[in-house]
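Below is our example:
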Amino acid sequence: MDAVAVLGGGATGTPRVPSSLAKHGRLSYTLSHNINLRASHLAAVQPLCRLFNYSPPCHSAFRKARKARVFLPRLVASMEVEETYIMIKPDGVQRGLVGEIISRFEKKGFKLTGLKLFQCPTELAQEHYKDLQSKPFFPKLISYITSGPVVCMAWEGVGVVTSARKLIGATNPLNAEPGTIRGDLAVQTGRNVVHGSDSPENGKREIALWFKEGELCEWTPVQEPWVKE
């Protein structure tokens, strides 16, 4: 009880000290002992900012950390009118998914400028996938693309290249988000139903590769004023 009386003094002024402590010379020992004890207890409790680095209680430091973080999405659509080449692969044609896939781009608001059902020759498939020529799966890929008819499409619109890639989804359908073409309609990379150009430059190159002169159509959809300003 004597120790409680010493530590329980008021926050200001001189604490009341029991006469028994002062008389027997125990005052200085009791004060120093309890102060050291309280300091050791406080030292044992580390600040939260050391225990949890992700959410420190130091609000000013936390605000600075939040301001420093910048989120950059992987795919950022351009505001320029672009062209892209979309191809429904043999598995998509064989499974009767042509109408379903075309409707995804139509509903988005892009303009179809070229469309044909086409049996791809080996030479054209090799030229299209020439960047993958060194890969071990290249022969199998060529055999797959030439195994049946494909649907060749040219699409035009603002930011169409990146937006089309988002509509298509990840290369591996199991990693593709629900709502994307591959996320909804495919399960294996080797049967991922559709191809899309990965850049505006490749979009132009692939359209020129798959469509002959005169096969593209220039036209203005009546819905255009309702799609873009």
